[in-house]
Amino acid sequence: MTISNQVNAVAYIRIACIAVSGDDDPRILDQRNQIEKFCRLRGWSLIQVFTDHGFGGHTDARPAFQQMMDQARSDHHPFDFIVVSNRSRIARGIVLLDSWLEKLAVWNVSMVSVGDDDGDLAWPAVPATKIFEDYEARQKGRKSEESR
To answer: In the chain, what are the domains?
Structure first.
């Protein structure tokens, strides 16, 4: 955790397919722009961006994700928040997401989604919204397979 009053954040960006245009892929740029705006509006310093290309959200075996979590786990982690455009960027399954949220809490790092409501009712709604996100992801996967 930072010692000063400055809040340091990192961004985590993930797309399931390999970005042909690298970090200039519109999906990556959109996530990054959302996160940068979110941090700017709160006066947070965005100190690093972690990006994984070609990895689904049902596994945590992602290089940039693991590097970010290794930093979060360290005794002198350089950031207070992990900011994502959507919770599904961290994990598609509720069990995996819950597991990481618990670890982050122990490490004194918070994860926040650009789409989260700032109100007190945001956290209790997470399990319900994850159910719908999981359903949506399965539907997208089926449609993708059917179009092949």
So the answer is: 8-146 (3.40.50.1390)
